[in-house]
Amino acid sequence: MSGHPGVGDGFRKSGLAVRWWLLALWSLPVLGVVWTVSQAPAWLEPRLLTVELAPGQSLVLGRDTLWASQADREHIVLRRDAGTGWRLANLSSAKQVWWRSGSGRYDTRPVRSWPLAAGAAFAVGTETFAVLGTEPGRLILQGGGLRWDYDGLDLRRGGRLLPPCHLDWRTRWRARLEKLGLPLVLARRPLRLGGGVYCADRLGLAGVPLDSVVIEPTPTGFALGSGAAGRRDGTPVTVAAGTPEAESLWERSISLGVGDRLTVGRTQYAVLQTAPALELAVVAGARRWLADSPPPVTSGVRVEWGRLTWLWSSGPVAPAGWLGLLLAALAPGSLWWAAREWGRRSRAGNRRLRIALGLALAGACLEMHWNVATVPLLWPYLLAWPVLLVWLGAVRSPWSVGLLAVVTLLLGGGLLALLQLGIGSGEAGWQRYGGSGAALAGAFGGLAWVGQSGWQLVRPAGWPGERRLWWGLRLLGAGSLALLAAQVVAGDEGGWAGFQPFESTKLVLAAAAAHALALRGQSPLHGWSYDAAAPWLRYLGPFILLVVACGFALLFLHDFSPLVLLLCWGVALAWAYLRAHPLPWWRWSGLLLLGALILLLAVGLRGLHDRPDALPLDFQADRIRAWAAPEFYPHAGYQLRRALEAIRAGGWRGTVWREAINGRVMAVPVVESDFAPTFFLSRYGGLAGLVLVGIQAVFIGLLLMIANRALRRLGTGRSWPAALGGFFYFTLYGGAALLAAHFLMSWGTNLGFLPVMGQPMPLLSAAGSHLVLFVLPIVALAVAIEERSHDDPL
Amino acid sequence: MMVVFAAASIGLLQWRLAAIYARPTAVALAAPASPPSRQEDAKLFARALAAGLLRPETDGRIMVAPADLPLRQTYAREHPELLAPHSGAVDWLAGAWNEDSQRLHRMLHFSATGRYVRQQVEDFNAHQLLAAIRWRSDSGLTGRWRANWGGAALALAVTLPPSIDRFLAETPGNWQPWQWVTRWPAVEGRPPVRFRLTPARPVQTGEPLELLLVGAAPAVEGATVVASEPLCAGGSSCAEPEAVAHRLTLEWRAGASELTVSGLPLPAMAFPEFSAQEVSPIRREGGRLLWRGEPGEAGVLWRPRPVGPLSVWPADSAVEAVPPADRSGSAGERA
Q1: pLDDT per residue as tens digits for the range B149-160
Q2: Which of A111, A343, A400, B12 is the most buried (most CB within 10 A)?
Q3: Which of chain B's residues have a Cβ under 8 Å away from the Cβ of A61?
Q4: In a domain, B142, yes or no
Q5: What is the spatial distance between Cα A212 and Cα B186, in angstroms, rounded to a whole number?
Q6: Is B252 in the same domain as B189?
Q7: How does residue A384 score in pLDDT terms, banded at 50, 70 and 90?
Q8: Which residues pair with A222 in a beta bridge?
Q9: Cα angle for residues A743, A745, A751 (degrees, 5° grid)
Q10: Would you call B5 and A700 a contact, using CB atoms and an 8 Å cutoff?
Q11: pLDDT band per the 50, 70, 90 thresholds, residue B239
Q12: Across the interface, which of B17, B84, B314 has its CB nearest the CB of A204?
């Protein structure tokens, strides 16, 4: 391994000191966790609820008696049958109770749900429907003198296919895909009863509000349930109508059995036994009680309490034990690996073993992410921290080390804040955000390890080939478009299949645009030209991606904030292109024009503040108006008002040093994601905020410097891999610009100098897709470029 | 360069934080300096009323345009055969429908302000009707009351608001507590409210009981009406058209297991003290609906009342609520 003169030599010479500094720096968030845990409030959490009733008796339970978060005060009623059986009904007017049978016969479904069967009947208001037939993907009803057929996607009335409820581009897409015979299982939707129109997924009913009742497709057929507008004191719904078993849907009860799972509010329970008493184990998300006073005794329910489970769950429904054993094996293994890498910096290590360990680590982290509500609090952190240490020890370039050190501080600080969010709250459910973020970061670290080791096995030296890169980008671009399409067809604004594909689209767009600009750099023609040598067609890919991304934001997400992000990215990319342009006239005139454009944008923003009604977009206009004149918008400006109150309460020093409990800052909506900076400022204070923004600036600066170094070291020439320099330069520049825009928008949203925009703050907010599909890949790319340059200097 | 960038970032944040710490109202949001009438909720309420998206009913309630009105309008033009028959007095398709009303409808149904306004309208409506019942039985019969209205279960409470309690003067005798409908759901029209009494033991034919019903046009099932006396405010006898309550003397019928008493709920407008309760910022003045804080109401800013302990449970649940921690007693028994 040959080194580079200058910084690298100095770094190597002072290697020992640097390593100690890195270890000290890595220890900071670790010490922070130790301090946070030591200062944690002495919470008691309910572990086991025991309900004893004589046969025939019933008992109303709710938020206080079940220790259920976000439940109604009187949410369920438990009734003991004449024998040993127990029945449960939902009393809440609008909130569901979810139930999963321990027998495995049903998926999780609401208690107020009635599986439809052929021959049965139900009534909504004054209208009665008879079920003529039901099977997966087909439901036939008879009601109002007509026959209704529903296949999970479209409704037929008397055999006639009803038109889409909204004939928009999304509906047309679905229809075309359906005609192509593509499986739309994921696109199935409930049939909504009520409202005044018969259309593809709505069955109008006179005098019944839309969405009072829905018919959901299930794996075994269809089930009738209450809709978003369904209320206990609203339209009456009778199931098993016309039979002795007829009952109101709102009164439906289920029989509880051992192994059943329940969710009341946000709290999950498992039925442990039903005789002689009903025992409910509290699985996750319960309300807590401070141990400095005895918990209130609730009549009819006996509660067993336990302390927070930091490392090992002592409850009766401990999560998978093997996961703990794997954790116990992986954490020391990872630390040993880190020490080995640190000491030997060997390239001759067994890469296959690395891959195996990395995969196991990533697998364990992903398992924790999926079960984050039930794993002990510190497990995800115990896996994420060694991964960071390993990476800090494994990289050789001082620039990579610097970048990873900054990421360690930012990610460590962010996870620390989310840990505080979880343990300073009176509801256990908040702890999942930090745990999930740590698990995902650990999984990404493990997979990055696998990727690095795999790449070294396949191609031990050299840069990726031009064709490989070109095809890789095409595949990524096509994959991004497919994921966005999947979200449009089968997902919603919140994402698809549990993640947000738009985050990866941003990254792919940055890379595709970088590739186009790098090709432009390779072209002999640097001015405006229609010459065939100018690869115009090659620019089509990123252009299509950009158009799709903008259209997706405008037409599907109905959110202007992605456009602001892309605008910042475009300006930064133009700046990056112009400042490296080989023709001076183009360079200087372009930069001048760009400066004028930035000035115009600033003036436009100011103008928008003064005249918010001038905004041409029809959606989210209330956010602009609330930003311009918050005193007139107590509702649209509610988030910002609460955020500023919380920030002011924190002051420069913050409240975490004197109050272990989070307090009123938890009332800020989405305090775990978009308003995470508010939580940070309120709890840790303005001074910590200054430190944070300083580190964020260094982070962006380091990315830009690595981008510049890639350009300088590799160049933009026509030969390969020299042309890669341009690609890396533009990709990192674009990525850094997007990250900087995220930081700016997030600070602006939280401090009120920009309209509220629902974008997370990188490495602080709880935003899994944003972290692993956008932020960490940019960091990984920068590290990979630096490491490869370090190994194979030109 | 990086140092300059970091220093500039820190400086800007420091400047902004200092402004927030020093003068929070500079960035937002304490008391509005301008008349509160310009607040978004008051404005939206007034505009929605003017556009016909909020319509006052004769019984005092306010109807809100349905959430799917834009779709109904589209279908009325393009597929009129696919419109569900409309019920109730309000034909929403009859009103004007233009870009302004579409924008207002969007705000009313799909914005934080609209959600708040609709919630206040719902609260207002829930207290625009009045019906209550109480009873006594010399034979010591006990039982449980439930109520429904247009098929929807009603919540009953035993405690009357003080204004109504004063209005219906205390009746001498061994009367059970009032069963008062605390909240009226959004049911179209004004069907009769049905109170159902399930006695705790089998009743004997001819066993007497007396009822006091607040409401109009009472009808009884399961018992024979021996006497019916219309009552006016204060409990004095008066003619039927002016009556707000009825004293009914009944005798159980043979084989009856349940008593049903129906009556039309009264518009709360008939009880000024009652309708002036601070349940919502909406109020009625000279036939006009106003949002508190509108012109003419300067300085009268409405504030939501703190929510007190809940003492109401769904009366139609066939079970008895067991008070949680703060009350004594053990598990309730099935009625």
Answers
A1: 877 778 888 777
A2: A400
A3: 324
A4: yes
A5: 12
A6: yes
A7: confident
A8: A217
A9: 100
A10: yes
A11: confident
A12: B84
Q: Which residue has the tokens 């259309």?
A: A199
Of B8, B29, B82, the CB nearest to A162: B82
Q: Looking at the domain assignment, is residue A618 inside a domain?
A: no
Distances (CA, A) of B230 to A418, B171, B218, B238, B260: 66, 14, 10, 6, 19
Contact residues, chain B, for A62 at CB < 8 Å: 324
CA A503-A504-A506 angle, to 5 degrees, is 70
* pLDDT, tens only, A293-330: 888 888 889 999 998 888 876 654 445 555 655 655 66
Whether residue B8 is contained in a domain is answered as no
Q: Which of B44, B82, B86 to mutate to test the interface with A (most CBs of A within 10 A)?
A: B82
Q: Contact B331/A696, CB-based, under 8 Å? A: no
Q: Which amino acid is at A208?
A: V
CB A441 within 8 A of CB A411: yes
- B202 in the same domain as B286: no
Determine the distance in angstroms separating the CA of B140 from the nearest CA of chain A, rounded to an integer.
24
d(CA A65, CA A46): 11
User: CA–CA separation, A314 vs A282, rounded Å?
Assistant: 12
Beta bridge partners of B220: B261
Q: Which amino acid is at A82?
A: A
Give B-chain residues touching A705 at CB under 8 angstroms.
Answer: 2
pLDDT tens digits, A439-492: 999 999 989 988 888 777 766 666 777 778 888 888 888 888 888 888 887 777
Beta strand pairing call for B245-252 and B223-231? antiparallel
The pLDDT score that the predictor gives to residue A84 is 76
The contacts of residue A472 (CB under 8 Å, 6+ apart) are: A464
pTM of the model: 0.82
A27: pLDDT strictly greater than 80: yes
Query: How many structural domains is chain B composed of?
Result: 2
Residue B105's domain comprises 36-80+97-126+279-299
Task: Check if A321 contacts B (Cβ < 8 Å).
Answer: no
Q: In chain A, how many domains are there?
A: 2
In whole angstroms, give the CA distance from residue B220 to residue A7: 96
Q: What percent of chain A has pLDDT over 90?
A: 39
> Which pair of structure tokens corresponds to residue A744?
């700016």
- Does the beta carbon of A235 lie under 8 angstroms from any beta carbon of chain B? yes
| pLDDT value at residue B325 | 31
Chain B contact for A722 (CB, 8 A cutoff): no
Quick check: is A590 in a domain?
Answer: no
Domain shared by A278 and A333, yes or no: no
Burial per residue of A522-549, b for 16 or more beta-carbon CB atoms within 10 angstroms, e otherwise: beeeeeeeeeeebeeebbebbeebbebb
* Residue A623 placed within a domain: no
Query: Which residue is associated with the tokens 């109150």?
Result: A645
Partnered with residue A78 across adjacent β-strands are: A59, A88
Are residues A343 and A200 part of one domain?
no
pLDDT tens per residue, range B162-217: 666 665 656 667 788 888 888 888 777 778 999 999 988 888 888 999 998 988 88
CA distance B105 to chain A (A): 13
Whether residues A137 and A76 fall in one domain: yes
pLDDT exceeds 80 at position A258 = yes
Taking each helix axis from N to C end, the angle separating A398-423 and A15-39, rounded to the nearest 10 degrees, works out to 10
* Same structural domain, A151 and A300: yes
Task: Establish whether this prediction's ipTM goes over 0.85.
Answer: no
Cα(A534)–Cα(A544) distance, rounded to whole angstroms? 18
At A318 the pLDDT is 46
- Pairing status of strand A191-193 against strand A202-203: parallel
Q: Between residues 41 and 60 of chain A, which touch chain B (CB distance below 8 Å)? A: 53-54, 56-60
Distance, in Å, from the CA atom of A472 to the CA atom of A495, rounded to the nearest integer, reads 24
Contact A269, A260 (CB under 8 A): no
Q: How many residues does chain A have?
A: 794
